[in-house]
Write a structure and sequence with these properties.
The complex is a heterodimer of chains A (135) and B (286).
Chain A lengths: L3 E7 L2 E8 L1 E6 L2 E5 L6 E14 L2 E15 L2 E11 L5 H17 L5 H20 L4
Parallel strand pairs in A: 1-7
Antiparallel strand pairs in A: 1-2, 3-4, 3-5, 5-6, 6-7
Helix pairs in contact in A: 1-2
Chain B lengths: L3 H56 L16 E6 L9 H16 L6 E6 L1 H9 L4 E5 L8 H16 L5 E9 L5 E9 L15 E2 L3 H76 L1
Parallel strand pairs in B: 1-2, 1-4, 2-3
Antiparallel strand pairs in B: 4-5
Classes of the chains: A alpha+beta (135), B alpha/beta (286).
């Protein structure tokens, strides 16, 4: 089976680097699946999970915001933050979720804070679902 | 000549000071190591994002995204990175002096520029001179995470996009080595310089299109430039503090040496005097 090199980098350093058979993720226009030999492409990513298929095994990475850059031999994911599922602090994510929900109840819509709380909630939910591998 | 006890007191207090500076030097050395490592860990991200941004921006030259085009300058923004605490030698004053001089040279009135300060020293410096500090952030950790400065970075970039600022410069000290740091001025926005050497461009497919990607990519790129500068200047800060503290310790040692010399001399003089007095007294009795 042909493989493609994947590297996930964040401002705090490289998070993941390996050869996989398929990368699938959610871009802002919809789900994307990338196999080796894909044409060069750039797409913005949403807060979501990146699934990396290697044989029968799957690796999950939670990313929040960023880009996917595809080249024939390589996929680069540039995200503002990214965590491999095994390294996610589930308790912290649960706490963050509660905090964000509380803020959403307190603030009115339209406000800047409301949008931030919404994003924080999305990130927390994403981390939780990646950590529990329910994608 | 100072009395024996005075000299002894000075020796003890200098010794205590040198213990403190020595400890501070070691703390800074540890932080400096981490700072340099952080700056290195950031390099791959920066290189990749620069590569992608450059190839997209060059590939779509015709697009006139506001962040890529020069416009008439009515107000200039200066982002200045300093530390929160002093005792770092000339680290802060170098950056502040250069920026202060540049502002005086380039602008006549306070309305022509705005200052965004990262770090307490820089903020206080410009505020006490009545200059226009629009945004500031203090209390940044020694190993800053991207999330910590994301707010101020995106606000700064936002001020450019909504037209409050027409260009943005960043001032920080660039880390060269443990003993050398260099004040650097970088033009952050509008983005015109993507660094030479990125000539080998890949032509990409854009999903959904180049315009929308630039919309998301450029702010992120500008924010990472700010973060990169912050990491760079944190490494410089710790290096500068380490050097300053080492110099202080060395000076204290020198001072202790010369003080002990005069202490011994004074003690010897006192002994000699005592002996002469005894001998004189004994001679008078004979």
């Amino acid at each position: 089976m042909k493989t493609i090199k994947v590297s996930v980098v964040t401002p705090d350093g490289p998070v993941y680097e390996s050869d996989v058979e398929m990368v699938s993720t959610k871009a802002s226009t919809g789900e994307l699946g990338i196999l080796p030999g894909h044409i060069p492409m750039v797409a913005p990513l949403q807060i979501g999970a990146v699934r990396l298929k290697n044989g029968s095994k799957y690796e999950f990475i939670a990313v929040s915001g960023g880009f996917l850059e595809v080249r024939p031999q390589q996929v680069n994911i540039l995200a503002q933050s990214a965590e491999i599922s095994s390294e996610i602090d589930l308790e912290r994510a649960l706490r963050a979720k509660e905090r964000a929900e509380k803020r959403l109840h307190e603030r009115r819509q339209e406000t800047h804070d409301f949008k931030r709380a919404e994003l924080a909630l999305q990130r927390a939910i994403n981390r939780i679902s990646v950590a529990e591998r329910k994608i | 000549m100072a009395s024996l006890r005075d000299i002894k007191n000075r020796i003890t207090s200098t010794k205590k000071t040198s213990q403190i500076t020595k400890a501070m030097e070691m703390v800074s050395a540890a932080k400096w190591n981490r700072g340099v490592m952080n700056a290195k860990a950031f390099v791959p991200y920066m290189e990749k994002i620069q590569e992608v941004t450059a190839s997209i921006a060059m590939g779509s030259k015709d697009s006139n995204h506001p962040m890529l085009t020069n416009r008439p300058v009515k107000k200039t923004g200066y982002l200045v990175i300093t530390s929160d605490r002093g005792l770092a030698g000339a680290y802060n004053s170098n950056v502040l002096r250069q920026l202060h001089q540049t502002i005086k040279k380039r602008h006549q009135s306070n309305d022509e520029f705005a200052i965004i300060a990262i770090g307490r020293v820089g903020r206080d410096f410009f505020q006490s001179r009545g200059m226009n500090v629009v945004l500031d952030i203090v209390g940044i950790a020694d190993q800053p995470s991207f999330a910590e400065i994301q707010d101020i970075a995106s606000n700064t970039v936002g001020m450019f996009s909504d037209g409050t600022l027409d260009e943005l410069y960043i001032y920080y000290s660039h880390y060269l080595s443990a003993i050398a740091q260099e004040v650097t001025e970088k033009k952050l926005l509008p983005l015109t310089d993507f660094g030479a050497g990125s000539t080998k461009l890949t032509s990409y497919e854009f999903e959904p299109n180049a315009e929308e990607i630039l919309e998301v990519l450029l702010p992120q790129y500008a924010e990472s430039l700010i973060y990169g500068a912050l990491l760079d200047s944190k490494a410089s800060e710790h290096a500068a503090r380490m050097t300053a503290m080492r110099n202080a310790t060395d000076n204290a040692k020198e001072l202790i040496n010369s003080l002990s010399l005069s202490y011994n001399r004074a003690r010897q003089a006192a002994i000699t005097q005592e002996i002469t007095e005894i001998v004189g007294g004994a001679a008078a009795l004979e």
